[in-house]
Amino acid sequence: MTALLEVAALEVAYGPSQVLFGLDLAMYEGAAATLLGRNGMGKTTTLRAICGLQPIIGGSIRFAGERIDGWRADRIGRAGIAIVPEGRQCFPNLTVDEHLQAFFANRRGIVDVWTAARVYALFPRLKERAKNLGNQLSGGEQQMLAIGRALVTNPRLLILDEATEGLAPLVREEIWACLAQLRAAGQSLLVIDKYVEKLISLADHHTLIERGQVVWRGSSAELDADHGIWHRYLGI
């Protein structure tokens, strides 16, 4: 079976400072996977490279069988990768409804399409705030909007970078419930987050990195069975 996403021997640097050293990562259609590690170990840099936001200096990135490293970010987005970025990055001068209408696309012609109405069914609080501007939303509402904005592009792969960071516990649980629904519906997910217990129940496969290199990979059962890995590489 061909991997939906295949990152091989990836190397990335910021000027003279190299951040990723031969990183490998693979996931399949309909799967949920995680990229784990302490802060500053290269997780977000990996996602930025996958999405075309950071040039690579070595290795390759393939998506749906095509090599995409070197592509512009907009082309990668049209190919079917959507990211919910750390920090949400909602447009302050667009309403919730305008966000969802502006980003809507169905390039693959799928039947079970994500529309603004479907996002409102997933996040009823967004429907209540449909006419509010991005900067008039709470942090939790902005996170819901960032997820909804990514979903209406109808991606093959949805990437989430710290989607529950800084949220109140009740809102965080709402986001986890959303991700579980997406997982059950067969949406391919690649997730960075610090709540390992939640990720174990959500994802099939986990990759841990330290100082820009893969130090462990395995299933949820394997990660759950060895809490020494958590302490060694995640500081939990």
Please tell me about this protein's structure.
The structure is a single chain. With 236 residues, the protein is α/β, with parallel strands linked by helices. It has a domain at 1-79 and 203-236: P-loop containing nucleotide triphosphate hydrolases (Rossmann fold, 3-Layer(aba) Sandwich), CATH 3.40.50. The chain has 10 helices and 10 strands. The chain has a 6-stranded mixed β-sheet with strand order 6-7-8-3-9-10, with helices on both faces. Helix 3 (96-103) packs parallel to helix 6. The model has no long low-confidence stretch (mean pLDDT 94).
Average pLDDT confidence is 94
Low-confidence stretches: none
Sheet with the most strands: spatial strand order: 6-7-8-3-9-10
Spell out the helices and strands N to C: EEEHEEHEHHHHEHEHEEHH
Radius of gyration: 17 Å
Range of helix content: 25-40%
Count of beta strands:
10
The CATH class assignment of the domain at 1-79 and 203-236 is Alpha Beta
Measured between the Cα atoms of the first and last residue, the distance is 35 Å
Molecular shape: globular
CATH architectural designation of the domain at 1-79 and 203-236:
3-Layer(aba) Sandwich
CATH superfamily of the domain at 1-79 and 203-236: P-loop containing nucleotide triphosphate hydrolases
How is the biggest beta sheet arranged? 6 strands, mixed
The CATH topology of the domain at 1-79 and 203-236 comes to Rossmann fold
Share of residues in strands: 25-35%
> Which structural class fits the helix and strand makeup?
alpha/beta
Task: Enumerate how many helices there are, as a single number.
Answer: 10
